Amino acid sequence: MTTTVAAYAAPAPKAPLERTTIERREVGEHDVLIDIKYAGICHSDIHQAREGWGEAIFPMVPGHEIAGVVEAVGSGVTKFAVGDKVGVGCMVDSCRECENCEAGLEQYCLKGNVGTYNAIGKDGEPTYGGYAEKIVVDEAFTVRIPDGIALDEAAPLLCAGITTYSPLRHWNVGPGKKVAVVGLGGLGHMGVKLAHALGAEVTVLSQSLRKKDDGLKLGATHYYATSDEATFKELAGTFDLILSTVSAPLNLDAYLSLLKTDGAFVNVGAPEEPVALNLFSVIAGRKTLAGSGIGGIQETQEMLDFCAAHGLGAEIELIRADQINEAYERVLASDVRYRFVIDTATI
């Protein structure tokens, strides 16, 4: 039997989100029913609710940073029990058969993974995300939240945490590496925390020095303003890895000049507009311009366990559900330190 739950949805592109009800599917053999406690607000939610990344599915219930407690389990569930603290990130299914899925890279499923919202599930129905009271998810796409992380601070880790952790691990960030994080926002602040915990020397590159004190407290050793032309002269050839977390188009040639030979500039922020590039910026120095999505389920669990072991959680501002539209505007104005999290009890 399906379950009717309260949620906040965008009824149409660019429309304000409003309270509504949605149907959650019946708990299947391998499903868990999660009582959502907290849901983070990601910039991706705004891009999709406003069709910044292309045509979307409406009504849309955003939210792919979900932390809650298991309320019920299907008869075949083996990973979780009622009462467990769990999370759900950016995807709720994949083909599970392709080369990437078998390698634990479900985020790069060759047939396309199923997004937690703004997607069509294998049952042919639209998926609805975490701005809701409850959600039903296959246990294979559910992760355990360790006791060492508060649920509200854990929610943003399911996107902002894994989105920054995955490339840091892939490019072997650790002691002796110099890492720059572009932007100190929802993604960037986790990038700083994680790179520092991995042992790297971390620099923040931000438009201004307004958040310098925060950046240093989060684990950065250096903080530079990119609005100052002297920054690019002083830091030329400095970094092994630059992690760009911003959703605005950048002067890629300028940033690539900051890399060492064989360095990598990795985009995890996704601007809505195309960006230009002079290929000599990568040819000279054998540099890499790359992108990275989220992580697979196993890597997401690894990230959560790493955060618990190092006492890491997101820096959050807890809000009521009726503040979501205001929060969206504040995210666009960079007026949040550093992730809005919805207390879903207020839905």
Describe the secondary structure blueprint for this structure:
Blueprint: E1 3-9, E2 18-24, E3 31-40, H1 43-49, E4 66-73, E5 85-88, E6 91-93, H2 99-102, E7 114-115, E8 134-138, E9 143-144, H3 151-154, H4 160-170, E10 178-182, H5 186-197, E11 201-206, H6 212-218, E12 222-225, H7 229-234, E13 239-244, H8 252-256, E14 259-267, H9 280-283, E15 288-291, H10 297-309, E16 316-319, H11 324-332, E17 339-343
Parallel strand pairs: 10-11, 10-13, 11-12, 13-14, 14-15, 16-17
Antiparallel strand pairs: 1-2, 3-4, 3-8, 3-17, 4-5, 5-9, 6-7
Helix pairs in contact: 4-5, 4-10
Strand content: 25-35%
Distance between the termini: 22 Å
Low-pLDDT windows of residues: none
User: What would you call the shape?
Assistant: globular
Please outline the major beta sheet. Answer: 7 strands, mixed
Overall structural class, as computed from helix and strand content, comes to alpha/beta
Order of helices and strands: EEEHEEEHEEEHHEHEHEHEHEHEHEHE
Number of helical stretches of at least 4 residues: 11
Mean pLDDT: 96
